[in-house]
Amino acid sequence: MKIGTKSVLFGAHCFLIHPWFVMIAWIKLYGFPLHPAIWLSFFFHDLGYLGKPNMDGEEGETHVELGAKILGFLFSKKWADFSRYHSRFYAKKDGVNYSKLCVADKLAITLEPYWLYLPRVNWTGEINEYMAQAKNNDGKYNSMSITTENQKAWFKDVCDYLKKWVNEHKDLKEDLWTPNTKQSITKTGVWK
Question: For residue 17, what is the DSSP state?
Fold first, then answer.
């Protein structure tokens, strides 16, 4: 089974857990969502990881397209883009602003306790890719200055960074923190 599928079934993007944290994050940031597209986006935005051989490489970065297709089919291009640009890296690549879903998605991980998150990403093996990205001086997460001494410290640093990012960007201010991703990404997630 590919790592992306494992992530959606029982990992970081588990369809039974992650959407609820995104919903809670949305309510904290923007209040109770009224539009049905917002509710559906909580559950569909990461389904594109199904079948992906990596999380942050070439293939994994395209995970945003499935949710965008579903929301576009059900509603409109506006809602497709709302789902598509929940990835700040994908938004940068396309030269557009990230969506409010992106902000809620980033806050969601910070709401999840380490004792619920870390066992899942260990079970799927995602933690290996995430920590390798944090160690990689050429990787897209290099500017985040995340420790890799142990998983709990890594998780704390990721959450601290994301809380700061969310606080700075909850009003959809221009994202000057995320590196420009117009370059191609290798299968290992290293920027060229």
Answer: T
Q: Is residue 185 part of a domain?
A: no
Point out the residues of the chain with pLDDT beneath 70: 137-143, 181-192
Residue 85 located in a structural domain: yes
- For the chain, what is the domain count? 1
pLDDT digit string (tens) for 42-89? 999 999 999 999 998 889 999 999 999 999 999 999 999 999 999 999
173 Rama class: left (phi>0) / alpha (psi -120 to 50) / beta: beta
Whether residue 149 is contained in a domain is answered as yes
Neighbouring CB atoms inside 10 A of 30's CB total 13
Residues spanned by the domain of 151:
3-169
Distance separating alpha carbons of residues 27 and 186, to the nearest angstrom? 36
Q: Is the separation of the CB atoms in 56 and 69 below 8 Å?
A: no
As a whole number of angstroms, the distance between CA 125 and CA 5 comes to: 12
In a domain, 175, yes or no: no
The structure's pTM equals 0.91
Residues 179 and 132: their CA atoms lie apart, in Å, by 18
